[in-house]
Design a protein that fits this description.
Elements lengths: L16 H19 L3 E5 L12 E3 L4 E3 L5 E3 L5 E10 L4 E9 L8 E9 L8 E7 L9 E4 L7 E2 L10 E9 L4 E7 L7 E7 L9 E10 L7 E10 L9 E6 L6 E6 L5 H4 L6 E2 L6 E7 L2 E6 L8 E6 L14 E6 L12 E7 L13 E6 L5 E2 L4 E3 L6 E2 L4 E2 L4 E6 L12 E4 L10 E6 L5 E7 L16 E3 L12 E3 L26 E8 L2 E6 L13 E2 L4 E6 L5 E6 L9 E5 L14 E5 L10 E7 L9 E6 L5 E2 L3 E5 L4 E4 L5 E2 L4 E5 L2 H5 L11 E3 L9 E8 L6 E9 L15 E3 L12 E3 L27 E3 L3 E2 L10 E6 L6 E8 L4 E10 L3 E6 L12 E10 L5 E10 L4
Parallel strand pairs: 29-30, 48-49, 55-61
Antiparallel strand pairs: 1-15, 2-5, 3-4, 4-15, 5-14, 6-11, 6-15, 7-8, 7-14, 8-9, 9-10, 11-12, 12-13, 16-17, 17-20, 18-21, 19-20, 21-22, 23-24, 23-33, 24-29, 25-28, 26-27, 26-31, 31-32, 33-34, 35-36, 36-39, 37-40, 38-39, 40-41, 42-43, 42-52, 43-48, 44-47, 45-46, 45-50, 50-51, 52-53, 54-56, ...
């Protein structure tokens, strides 16, 4: 009998448990191959590769080696796929393999295992033998067939695969006398029971150069639900090789616990005998022994010092399944070395699956993937995750090796991410928002480890932001960029849990550092925010300038904020210019361009200081409402003073954001900045988009009211009703088209002061002057006047409307306005006995009484007016309606 001795030398204390694991894995693989030197071939896919040692071929693009180191079907759609390996066959053989199918097999979803197949790798096998797992669902048993025959050579007794998920280890033996034996363990273990035997009378002559193959038939829903592992094909000869220890693997968290790895599956009775193991001092008594085929895990009562060398002695009690007795052996090993401390970004948030619907390929459940980018072995016990809420969800004990991933998701018996890699299934967890979410990771000392903020815009792909795709970290070496370092997965399954991200790149993100927010927290302090995390060491060289003078510039509450303290207080109502010059950089070195921004101490808002300027109440499918407001006063106003209401629904929402609205500037209120930006509108000032909760707005009609909530009686600042009839009458589709205020100084609740945004402006103008903007210009000595005597009502934003402007000095002035053609026929009633304000405008949209567009030509506008004291009069003008012929 040959004996094998293994000596493991630890070269340096720098070899932590991660490197030892790699050494042991390599050693185990080498011994596995050596132990089966008499085998024709063996493959457990632990090398992550099926293209060598041995080489599998045929339809290899339909298969992968997954994170569990199994061969897995990974087809794009329904059909059939085959994968095979060539080997040398002899008269007496043993075939052993594990088959797992995550469904109950049937005639359309089944596995055919060719033990021998000739001609090699063709769809027509004329010489060979195969096992069939999957029939019509009524009599399913594992059956052995001879190629070309419909009657099985042998049929197993057990019907376990009938209407059950399959996790079966099979061993088929063929003796030199043509006796076939089928053994199986339907739990996937090594407790084989004999299921069938058959004495073949007219065997095929076994061809030496043959193939072993897996043939999968499947529908589209089962295209990735087939798994294969632990394939061993060898001569059918008595096993005379004794088992031996290949490795002792310390538990990376519990220093008095370790796993013994054997060269083959060992007998459970002898392996569970505590006297088979002896650990020299300083260990105490054995308190736990767990058997797992070719591995046994031992745990001792006394704590073993961290990073200590120990000697494990095996007196020679353990046997393999063939009864070969293991000789006496000892094994020196080192206990695990755990990281005593973790620092910022040792572990990072690497992938976020916030919106699993519609399902692309991944399980329909949210997850967060963590990645250990350090060289430390880290116990995640005590780490915690939180979203924008206040609750921190603690993680349980889990050892995360260097360069390793772990998938965290809420426990659900219908969901299993285990096939992708290591997982932590927690019982309680926050629900990820698909938009405007922030995830923070803390270490065991509650110190910040990583933080990622994301929105729908982070996907950088409008279609993928609808759901089914994960957000992946681009460069794990620049985690300081947060959400700027993420984008939508490019993997066909929608994400890459448990493995390197599909968008992985070593390139450094190059977009410039930008100022996104400025607000005075008081009259002597200013908060500034940037689009990315700052390199705060560059604050020392950056130049900030304002009239009051700068005292200090320090980091704010997060990595994107800086806080400026002034030498003297700002005066209320005065506008200052804050200048930020070069030298400031983001955390990866991108420079900040010289910028200046207006700022001041806000004043109390009064009625009509701010007016409703534009309303999108009927967005495109998948879009979002918005309300644009305009500061027509000379005040600096904080929007936090205001509430927004739909008075038809009594739905009041607070604008709970500190935002400075300067004189003659616009702000757009919406629930999702990223969705609004994705709708295709021109947005000239993205920083003027303010995310806040809005009332619900119906698509037909409604109301928008701005309220100063803390004023007595809830002072109304501005209010406007809207109605879909305010739109351009010939507009074919109103969805995605905003209503624009024509004159900010005109009446808010006057239909004539609202109109559809021009098509040439993209049907909305959020953050800048309206496409239909008009300020009345008229002669002071005329009661009525026209801005233009020609117009073109085509919705392009240029002279779309005809305005009859008036400036009234009479009390109780009432007017009727009509449009006639040159033959005196009535074309349109513009107004009928309408009481006029002090000033304003009547409007003709270029339509007729029957709702059609008036023809190109010359028309007469005729106005009749009177007052209660008897004053009457007429006014008429000729106008031209023009357009393209």
């Amino acid at each position: 009998m040959m004996r094998f001795f293994i000596k493991i030398v630890i070269l340096s204390k720098r070899y932590n448990s991660f490197f030892m694991k790699k050494i042991f894995t390599l050693l185990t693989l080498q011994i596995f191959v050596f132990h089966f030197a008499n085998a024709q071939f063996a493959d457990d896919f632990n090398d992550g590769d099926f293209t060598k040692n041995p080489t599998w071929s045929w339809q290899t693009d339909s298969f992968i080696v997954n994170a569990k180191q199994e061969l897995q079907l990974n087809a794009k759609t329904g059909g059939n796929s085959r994968i095979a390996v060539n080997y040398t066959c002899e008269q007496a053989m043993i075939w052993e393999f594990l088959v797992r199918m995550e469904f109950a097999p049937s005639a359309t979803n089944r596995t055919i295992i060719y033990l021998t197949a000739n001609p090699l790798q063709t769809t027509t096998i004329t010489n060979g033998y195969y096992l069939l797992m999957g029939e019509d669902g009524t009599t399913d048993k594992i059956k052995l067939f001879k190629a070309g025959e419909t009657t099985p050579l042998a049929t197993c007794q057990n019907t376990f695969i009938l209407n059950n998920l399959v996790n079966t280890r099979v061993r088929v033996k063929r003796g030199a006398n043509n006796l076939w034996t089928i053994e199986a363990d339907y739990n996937g273990g090594y407790a084989f029971t004999q299921e069938a035997t058959a004495q073949e009378q007219n065997p095929f002559p076994l061809i030496a150069n043959t193939s072993f193959a897996f043939w999968c038939d499947y529908t589209a829903t089962r295209k990735d639900k087939f798994f294969f592992d632990d394939i061993k094909v060898s001569k059918n000869e008595p096993d005379k090789t004794a088992p031996f220890v290949t490795a002792v693997i310390p538990d990376p968290v519990i220093v008095n616990k370790f796993t013994v790895k054997f060269s083959e599956v060992v007998d459970s009775i002898s392996a569970k005998d505590p006297s088979a193991y002896g650990l020299k001092d300083p260990a105490g008594s054995l308190i736990s022994l767990t058997y797992n085929y070719d591995k046994v895990t031992l745990e001792y009562a006394q704590m073993i010092p961290n990073n200590n060398y120990l000697l494990l002695v095996f007196p020679g009690i353990i046997k393999d399944l063939a009864g070969n007795l293991m000789g006496g052996q000892s094994q020196s090993f080192k206990t695990a070395t755990l990281a005593s401390t973790t620092i910022f970004n040792d572990v990072i948030i690497n992938e976020i699956f916030a919106d699993p619907s519609p399902q692309i390929g991944l399980p329909k459940a949210e997850f967060i993937e963590l990645y250990n980018r350090s060289t430390k072995t880290i116990n995640l016990q005590g780490f915690s995750l939180k979203d924008k809420g206040t609750t921190q969800y603690k993680l349980p004990k889990f050892t995360l090796q260097p360069n390793a991933y772990v998938i965290i998701y809420k426990r659900d018996k219908a969901i299993d991410f285990g096939k992708y890699g290591d997982t932590i299934a927690v019982t309680t967890f926050f629900t990820l928002d698909s938009d405007n979410e922030e995830i923070t990771l803390f270490n065991e000392k509650n110190e910040l480890m990583d933080k990622v903020s994301y929105s729908l815009g982070t996907y950088q792909d409008v279609k993928k932001s609808d759901g089914g795709w994960s957000l992946e970290c681009i460069n794990p070496n620049t985690p300081c960029l947060g959400g700027y370092n993420f984008r939508a997965s490019e993997n066909e399954n929608g994400g890459t849990p448990g493995k390197i991200n599909s968008v992985f790149s070593k390139e450094i993100e190059k977009s410039p550092l930008l100022l996104t927010y400025v607000f005075p927290t008081n009259d002597s302090e200013i908060l500034v925010q940037f689009n990315k995390n700052l390199d705060f060491s560059t604050l020392q060289n950056a130049v900030f300038d304002i009239e009051t003078g700068i005292n200090t510039v320090v980091q704010g509450a997060n990595f994107q904020e800086a806080k400026i303290t002034l030498n003297s207080a700002m005066q209320k109502g005065k506008i200052y210019t804050l200048k930020i010059k070069k030298a400031l950089e983001d955390c990866v070195g991108n420079a900040f361009s010289e910028t200046e921004v207006k700022i001041g101490v806000p004043e109390t808002v009064a009625a009509k200081d701010v007016v409703i300027n534009e309303i999108l109440f009927n967005p495109k499918t998948g879009g979002t409402d918005f309300v644009e407001i305009y500061n027509r006063s000379k005040k600096i106003i904080n929007l936090n003073e205001l509430n927004i209401d739909n008075r038809q629904k009594l739905d009041v929402q607070e604008i709970n954001v500190n935002y400075l609205l300067l004189p003659n500037e616009y702000a757009v209120l919406t629930e999702s900045k990223s969705i609004l930006q994705a709708q295709g509108y021109t947005i000239k000032n993205p920083n003027a988009i303010v995310e806040t909760k809005l009332p619900s707005f119906d698509d037909d009609e409604g109301n928008v009211t701005l309220i100063k909530a803390d004023a007595p009686g809830k002072l109304i600042i501005d209010a406007a009703d809207y109605d879909k009839s305010y739109h351009y009458p010939l507009l074919k589709d109103q969805s995605g088209v905003s209503l624009e205020r024509i004159n900010p100084d005109g009446e808010s609740n006057n239909k004539s002061n609202w109109y559809s945004a021009a098509s040439t402006a993209g049907f909305a103008t959020p953050t800048y002057q309206n496409s239909q903007f008009l300020i009345a210009q008229k002669a002071d000595n005329e009661l009525f006047s026209l801005e233009n005597t020609r117009f073109s009502p085509d919705g392009d934003g240029f002279e779309d409307l005809l305005f009859i402007q008036y400036k009234n000095t009479l009390t109780g002035l009432t007017a009727s306005a009509k449009v006639f053609d040159l033959d005196g026929r009535l074309i349109k009633n513009i107004a009928g006995s309408e009481l006029l304000a002090n000033e304003g405008a009547l409007r003709w949209d270029g339509d007729t009484e029957d709702g059609t567009k008036a023809l190109i030509g010359i028309y007469v506008v005729f106005v009749q007016y009177f007052t209660p004291d008897g004053t009457t009069g007429n006014w008429k003008k000729t106008v031209s309606l023009v357009g393209k012929l």
